[in-house]
Amino acid sequence: MGKLVECVPNFSEGRRPEVIAAIAGEVEKVEGVTLLNVNSDASHNRTVVTFVGEPQAAKLAALNACAKAAELINMEQHHGEHPRIGATDVIPFIPVSEITMEECVQLANELGQEIAGKLNIPVYMYEAAAKTPARVKLPDVRKGEYEGLKTAIAAPERHPDYGPAKMHPTAGATVVGARQFLIAYNINLSTSDVNIAKKIASTIREAKGGFKYCRAMGVMIEDRNMAQVTINMVDYTGTPLHRVFETVKSEAARYGVNVIGSEIVGMVPLQALIDTADFYLRFEGFDRKQVLEENI
User: Which residues are tagged catalytic?
Assistant: First the structure.
């Protein structure tokens, strides 16, 4: 298989199909890269693109997609439920085959320097590529979001790791890093009271004493008049999806609210779904080799 890295850039556009297609098209143009998924959400006004490839090819695809996003997205006109600081909000690299996390960190730093140097966009490094402990977690880097960072970036403690200490006039800033696989997971509630979603998110969020590896917040999905608990599971092996789902369901019941559904944004490891099926179906002696697609 050779060296293979996954890249999952998030773009601040989920409503204009032509813009989304143009950004994804930049990925498809690069030889040695395979586009796996494009997932857009109009309420969040955000698109998650997933692709895999040889490290240098993946880096080129990410750079080209970032350049296209900077060309077509104006953050001065952007509104959406999801936190963001730029047209290309975040670009993580994830090791897949014959590549170490250290190599992904090096790749992330190379990309960060190129985005700053070629596109004049300030870049912050996060997770395994973070330069300081204060920038390991993405929510800490995005504090204040695009609007707040426009002024905060001038403070020495908020200076970017690469590029100018001022926002790009339309593309804002970008976060680049290296991490393990993350599952973006949303749980939808039968209420329009976003405060309930926020209280539930606070209960399960690691930073508030909830589940380890769980980052969560409550948001309002305007087009469905529905509150949502939006979650990033940064290590599904440490805290499985079903444990978080059951807790959200239980907490929602305390407020007289039901869970009406959940959704996975982008790609998900098969093992995460098998673990969830195992929990609910109470398998006895089940082996992953029994999955048909694993044997084809």
Answer: 82
